Please model this.
Amino acid sequence: MSNEDGVAQRPEDEPGTGVVAAFGKQLKLLRVRAGLDRAEFGKRVGYAAESIASIEQGRRIPQPRLVERADEVLEAGGVLVALKEVLARAQYPAFFRDMARLESEAVELYAYDTLLVNGLLQTEEYMRAVLAMRRPLLDEATIELRVAARLARQEIFSRWPAPLLGFVLDESVVRRTIGGRDVLREQLEQLLLIGHKRNVELQVMPMERDDNAGVDGPFTVLVRKNNEQFVYTEVQGHSHLQTDRDETRQAAARYGIIRSQALSPRETLGFIEKLLGEL
Model:
């Protein structure tokens, strides 16, 4: 088991194994049968020949649009499309796949973070900086996979009906220069943009607060359409998805207290603008 960023990733979760490798072999078989070389096939589906080679060799997980287009071009009759959903889930470490699915179904999501900017809020450069810092070191293929997966999760901001989203970040999170000042500046600018969305409440928990109900660490509360609640926690390479009603109710109540102790969304935007002016 590992954390969201792929530490101690298990072999069956890596590119080149399982469904990813099987899809690559099937794609190559259909392409060769159609009499297309990688360059010509890539031109028809909008990808470079090198990318097609990576997919066929199981080193890269194809995006849903490529799967659909490949099925059409190769006249696969739905054989490739049938694997689209499984492939989408394969881009995440095994332990995170249930959480990714719940995120995609959530009508409400509330997160408290104490060390890093929440993955749903991260810029691409911030993601790369975080992933590059992992120990043991991640290879470039895994980093690219994790970046693509995290960017895909940010679809939650364009979904309709729009889910209600709340994020409370410890002040240290927005001050920590992950990747350097330029990366932090870009990240703070993105927080401002997201913080202005009507369905998002973005708040900062000041370090000077005498009372902080979040001393037990970061967590995320998710709510589905049927009001079913889940609580997700992650620490030192281990994750836990809580479904017990009492536990989830208490976590939701705790988040409410944290939110009341933090700066208001309007105060938070002003605080972030001030930080930007200091960089």
DSSP finds twelve helices and six strands in the chain. The first helix runs from residue 18 to 33. The CA atoms of residues 135 and 274 lie 33 Å apart.
